[in-house]
């Protein structure tokens, strides 16, 4: 008997609701599912938040399949038991400071952290293993069972590591989540509650000493035993705990499934008829429905979370994109000519397509696609200013442009399980600076044992004896430990989520991103206003309050485009109020995406107040008072929030119970945002 476990890399997401959860989508761009407290699926999600306005944790179900495609559960004849073991960890505090692309070994061994002299987070800690949040593994079996990753459920004899239970700022991290089994014995992995805390003031969006958060990742193990004496079958997978997906129906143009497919195609002969031992087949026939249309569809939805007007031309059917005829070839090739190619790794001047903003034709200019920042528009080392699609995406678009494609809706899928693609397909794949859920280590084939399969470094018996290693780089080979996929991400994650939205990018000098000024490092002028990953971190959204009561709370009419994070005015505030953000969702779903109307919903307006500021108050010219500027900010008088409505009272009760300790800012200040501006219009 052959069994398989899917998804091979699951993705659960943080939330702070005490008693309500949902389940991860089973399709790229799909919505989560509501679930009961045992992880049993109820149906399509209705609300992302509970009655208090707290976000439901999103659990990742894991399922076992037989070789005939049927699912195996505890209700399957001859199955005696299914035991699950999951080992989550958070290594952020023990890892190096995030330094854009420095440390990325795809740029060669001379780009290692050590050779690049990258400092550790918490550089003065003597016992670096103690910086890891390592609760040890948790095992669960049977139906409708539960176990947590708190100290109370720690396995006997394991060298557990937890952060301090008392912190000066924020909220201490005491658990990384929970495991559930549903009514058929399936595993559901739940992450943490969005807690973050430390003992020193915040100094940077990327990471501050003494701080921990409850992001994590790690292996999932499964042992199936049988009644008839059939030998036990052992399976494994991986799970990532990410931040909430606030716009789940909008997908990144190059998502993490695209990244894993690209790694598989170029390094594992996943599709040998396309790419064999790293050599592309120029005669390979792409399929418009499978390979090209999804890119166009992803581009089309960016407009709901960002002002990307130039991108919309590439979704407007200015010609028949699906027509493979020679007479249409010029149109297809002109279309592709607006997509920049990849830089080499490391880049080889003067061929630096990702440092080029415009396609030029005489005096005509047009920004090249995709209209996103690249993986390093921030520092002056390993510069990658603007995004390009991954190599497999660009190859397939090239085949399409040259007429080597068919338009067949009944296509053969690539040899990737649909559940594997769906789980990671809702994560950021590009750019990676650092990203949202994970970063550029997922581009390195060394960390995989097979396409979409993370190679594991050691087994649980070894970890039980030795614990986890704080400074080993999985990109040197040998596999991954718990916590390795997320250790490069910002700590706390909320700070980076606030900062990584837009970027001012110099577009005239390929060798410089920023220059030093008395105010700090700023982007070299002239610059272009670019976005990072708006599907994951929205920026420009349509307000979706359609009742008089709702509009009185949000102070904005329905349909007006506003800044998504309005009212949260620093990354320090984001650490406390991240759950106040709204969810962006399609309110016209019955058209199956043909006529989307994607708006902001479920924003906790009770936490904010609003003021129309006359321009004359700034200019000292009374004539300017005929124009006002809308200003949103956190309501500091808690009794005013509680008095607004029942939800406001519940939110205040939550804040009291949470006992969040106000965060101080370092005396030297936070410096300029990495974007180069504090303007969040």
Automatic annotation (TrEMBL):
Xref: InterPro entries: LodA, LodA_C, LodA_N
Record-listed E.C. numbers: 1.4.3.20
UniProt keyword DNA-binding present: no
GO biological process, alphabetically ordered: killing of cells of another organism; negative regulation of single-species biofilm formation
Entry-linked Pfam families: LodA_C, LodA_N
Presence of keyword Metal-binding: no
Domain called L-Lysine epsilon oxidase N-terminal: residue spans: 6-241
L-lysine epsilon oxidase C-terminal domain sequence ranges: 370-513
GO MF entry, a single one: L-lysine 6-oxidase activity
Keywords: Oxidoreductase
Xref: NCBIfam families: Lys_ox_CTQ_LodA
Name of the featured protein: L-lysine 6-oxidase
């Amino acid at each position: 008997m052959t069994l398989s476990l899917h998804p091979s890399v699951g993705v659960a997401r943080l939330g702070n609701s005490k008693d309500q959860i949902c389940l991860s989508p089973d399709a790229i761009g799909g919505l989560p599912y509501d679930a009961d407290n045992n992880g049993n699926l109820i149906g399509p999600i209705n609300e992302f938040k509970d009655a208090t306005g707290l976000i439901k944790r999103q659990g990742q179900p894991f399922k076992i399949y037989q070789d005939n495609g049927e699912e195996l559960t505890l209700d399957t004849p001859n199955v005696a038991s299914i035991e699950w073991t999951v080992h989550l960890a958070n290594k952020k505090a023990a890892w190096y400071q995030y330094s854009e692309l420095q440390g990325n070994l795809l740029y060669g061994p001379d780009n290692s952290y050590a050779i690049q002299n990258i400092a550790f987070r918490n550089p003065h800690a003597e016992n670096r293993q103690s910086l890891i949040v390592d609760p040890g593994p948790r095992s669960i079996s049977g139906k409708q069972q539960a176990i947590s990753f708190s100290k109370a459920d720690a396995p006997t004899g394991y060298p557990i590591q937890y952060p301090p239970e008392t912190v000066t700022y924020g909220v201490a991290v005491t658990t990384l989540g929970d495991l559930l089994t549903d009514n058929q014995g399936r595993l559901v992995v739940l992450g943490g509650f969005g807690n973050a805390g430390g003992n020193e003031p915040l100094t940077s969006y990327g990471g501050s000493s003494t701080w921990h958060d409850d992001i994590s990742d790690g292996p999932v193990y499964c042992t199936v035993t049988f009644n008839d004496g059939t030998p036990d079958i052992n399976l494994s997978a991986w799970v990532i705990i990410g931040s909430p997906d606030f716009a789940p129906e909008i997908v990144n143009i190059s998502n993490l499934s695209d990244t894993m497919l690209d790694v598989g195609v170029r390094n594992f002969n996943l599709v040998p008829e396309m790419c064999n031992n790293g050599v592309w087949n120029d005669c390979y026939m792409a399929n418009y429905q499978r390979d090209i249309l999804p890119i166009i569809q992803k581009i089309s939805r960016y407009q709901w979370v960002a002002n990307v007007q130039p991108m919309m031309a590439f979704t407007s059917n200015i010609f028949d994109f699906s027509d493979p005829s020679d007479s249409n070839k010029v149109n297809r090739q002109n279309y592709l000519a607006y997509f920049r190619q990849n830089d080499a790794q490391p880049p080889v001047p003067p061929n630096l397509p990702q440092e080029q903003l415009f396609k030029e034709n005489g005096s005509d200019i047009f920004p090249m696609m995709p209209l996103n920042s690249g993986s390093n528009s921030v520092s002056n080392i390993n510069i990658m200013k603007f995004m390009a699609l991954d190599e497999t995406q660009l190859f397939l678009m090239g085949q399409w442009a040259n007429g080597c494609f068919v338009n067949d809706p009944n296509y053969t899928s690539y040899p990737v399980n649909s559940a594997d693609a769906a789980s990671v397909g809702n994560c950021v794949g590009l750019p990676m600076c650092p990203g949202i859920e994970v970063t550029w280590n997922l581009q390195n084939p060394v960390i995989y044992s097979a396409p979409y399969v993370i190679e594991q470094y050691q087994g649980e018996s070894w970890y039980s004896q030795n614990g986890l290693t704080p400074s080993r780089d999985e990109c040197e080979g040998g596999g991954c430990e718990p916590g390795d996929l997320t250790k490069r991400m910002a700590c706390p994650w909320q700070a980076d989520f606030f900062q990584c939205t837009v970027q001012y990018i110099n577009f005239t000098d390929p060798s410089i991103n920023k220059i030093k000024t008395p105010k700090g490092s700023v982007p070299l002028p002239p610059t272009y206003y670019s976005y990072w990953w708006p599907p994951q971190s929205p920026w420009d959204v349509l307000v979706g309050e359609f009742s008089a009561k709702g509009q009185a709370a949000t102070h904005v009419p329905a349909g007006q485009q506003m800044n998504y994070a309005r009212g949260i005015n620093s990354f320090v505030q984001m650490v406390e109020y991240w759950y106040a953000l709204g969810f962006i969702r399609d309110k016209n779903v019955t058209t199956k995406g043909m006529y989307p109307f994607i708006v902001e919903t479920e924003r906790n307006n009770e936490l904010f107040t609003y003021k129309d500021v006359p321009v004359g108050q700034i200019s000292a010219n009374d004539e300017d008072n005929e124009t006002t500027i809308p200003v949103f900010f956190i309501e500091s008088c808690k009794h005013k929030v509680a008095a607004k409505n029942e939800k406001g009272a519940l939110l205040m009760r939550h804040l009291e119970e949470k006992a969040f300790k106000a965060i101080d800012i370092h005396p030297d200040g936070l410096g300029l945002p990495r974007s180069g501006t504090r303007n969040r219009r």
